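Subject: design request, 342 residues
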């Protein structure tokens, strides 16, 4: 299983492949029509959430389009991001299932090693399987180290609403969005051009008090390091980090700037380090060395026939494990030794 995160919450290669697939099929549709379909899906989801007493916030996409962009500008997106209240996640999943969405990770054999997966991809592929409508259900925000319930309470205090397809939908206010833009940039690293561009746009358009509030919110959810590292990806953000007196984050800065070269296994080592007791660490090792059958089949398509080929698939996985473990260890060592500004 590789759906893990590091300090800044970087998705893994397998998760990125799923996201890339969703985006690839999305762009085949007309972008304006696609955005309209996603907006309609979002309003349907939030209408169902209201009926089911599910508290949630709509992230990014339509929220940025309404609060960051001007009316003359268009912001396109390929999925809908939703942050659910921790206490309501079971009802949120049940509600999505009733609406016809299916959880994408299960078919890929993805396991949450160490309890660090920050989101789940739910896809509605019923009537239009060519252009599925994906909902990204976030369990917490990558970069935040506060317990999810406590972080939710602080984020919910920064709630506002936008109008979407005739319905009022809850989103983060400007301070919340500013913080999330920086966390999102840190999550995806220096290769995430769009995230840096939008962060730069927000730095241009939102005044200093908004960013002071964003820094305060980051402190409340224990996300100051990721907030600072995300800001430092753009020149104006680096200057703002100085003005706000944010702490140095040399190791995280290095990891964020090298996120696109992060090797397989990095998150397993993180989960192993964070594991609780011998049993917790043994569980991480077991899942790392003996992933699900579906995962092996994705990794080695020839193993799908089962029997001896499946055994060979597991053997190939075990043989390769020491190599990716060493590469992951070296990456973590380099990050710990990163000089300032590296």
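Subject: RE: design request

Done. Sequence follows.
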């Amino acid at each position: 299983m590789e759906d893990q995160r590091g300090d800044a919450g970087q998705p893994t290669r397998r998760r990125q492949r799923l996201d890339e697939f969703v985006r690839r099929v999305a762009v085949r549709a007309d972008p304006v029509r696609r955005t309209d379909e996603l907006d309609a899906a979002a309003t349907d989801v939030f209408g169902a959430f209201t009926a089911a007493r599910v508290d949630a916030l709509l992230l990014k996409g339509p929220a940025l389009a309404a609060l960051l962009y001007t009316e003359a500008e268009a912001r396109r997106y390929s999925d809908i991001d939703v942050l659910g209240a921790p206490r309501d996640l079971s009802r949120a999943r049940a509600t999505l299932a009733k609406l016809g969405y299916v959880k994408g990770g299960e078919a890929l054999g993805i396991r949450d090693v160490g309890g660090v997966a920050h989101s789940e991809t739910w896809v509605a592929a019923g009537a239009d399987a060519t252009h599925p409508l994906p909902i990204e259900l976030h369990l917490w925000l990558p970069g935040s180290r506060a317990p999810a319930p406590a972080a939710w309470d602080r984020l919910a205090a920064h709630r506002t609403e936008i109008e979407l397809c005739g319905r009022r939908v809850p989103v983060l206010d400007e301070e919340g969005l500013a913080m999330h833009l920086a966390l999102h940039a840190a999550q995806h690293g220096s290769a995430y051009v769009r995230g840096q561009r939008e962060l730069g746009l927000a730095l241009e358009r939102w005044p200093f008090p908004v960013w002071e509030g964003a820094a305060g919110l980051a402190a409340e959810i224990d996300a100051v390091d990721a907030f600072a590292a995300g800001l430092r990806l753009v020149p104006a953000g680096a200057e703002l980090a100085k003005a706000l007196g944010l702490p140095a984050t040399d190791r995280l800065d290095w990891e964020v700037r090298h996120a696109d070269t992060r090797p397989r296994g990095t998150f397993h080592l993180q989960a192993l380090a964070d594991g609780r007791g011998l049993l917790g660490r043994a569980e991480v090792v077991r899942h790392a060395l003996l992933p699900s059958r579906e995962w092996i089949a994705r990794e080695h398509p020839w193993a799908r026939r089962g029997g001896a080929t499946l055994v060979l698939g597991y053997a190939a996985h075990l043989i390769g494990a020491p190599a990716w473990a060493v590469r992951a260890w070296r990456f973590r060592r380099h990050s710990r030794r990163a000089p300032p500004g590296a």
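The mean pLDDT is 81.
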